[in-house]
Fold this protein.
Amino acid sequence: MWSIIATWSFSLQCVEKGETILKSGGRALDAAEMGVRLVESDPAVDCVGRGGYLNADGELALDAAVMCGDTLKTGAVACVRGFEHPVSIARAVMEKTKHSILVGPYAEAFARQIGFAEAPPEYMITETARRKYEEEKRRRGKPSGHDTIGCLALDDAGSLCVATSTCGSNLRLPGRVGDTPIIGSGFYVQSGVGGAAATGLGEDIMRTCCSFRAVDLMRGGMSAQEAADTVVFTAHNTLRQCGLKPDCIALIVIDARGNCAGASNHKGFVYACARPGESPRIVSVDPVIDKDEQED
Ligand code: GLY
């Protein structure tokens, strides 16, 4: 039975799109990709695609990935400029090459070769994004903002797939890559077992390999909620034990039957989800970490 879940309230449009595809017997990969494309095009979402945060050079460089849980094949791109839909370039990497990740100008050349239309900076970089960049630069602010759209979809055939996309943080160093295109950290799916996708500070999520851990815990018998809570709680405490101050880490998880869950180490995390008999809705997540230990 189909099911779909995605990070943050801005992903409601993604879940609604995915629902229409899955309801009519469509594939999980199409549902996840098509849903994420809507968010990539939405200039009001400042952490994904068009209208996203700029790097320290004032460029919009995007990361995205897809993974198919039947084959464990994955495709990802990092630091792609001048294309509206990095998630679809990531899918082309998975389907048309023997590789997993292409980066920067090489990923852009691949996209051109495949025939993806280029999107000029005046379309991709909005006035609001440019203004936030200039303000932060004047304030000499440190990189901020690190949310991601991650969408996990299960279709009626039992295939689990994931698609992710982000622009990373405002004022990040050019060339910086977070967890979003990194298998096992930002995402992981295995059909018949489950899937996970992360949002939050990529450096912390990569240090703790959150998504693979969640799927592995479900393989060992945990429910989606137990796996999500355990991974976020353990990641937060592991970082603390190693002398670090954990930033935001949040995870969405789905099991092989379509049960969905979310966990976070900070307040304010929400996800969108839908399944047969449950229309697309937003779910708030209570932090698994005590209030006095949460990042402000
Ligand atoms: N989680 C997205 C990033 O850190 O780039």
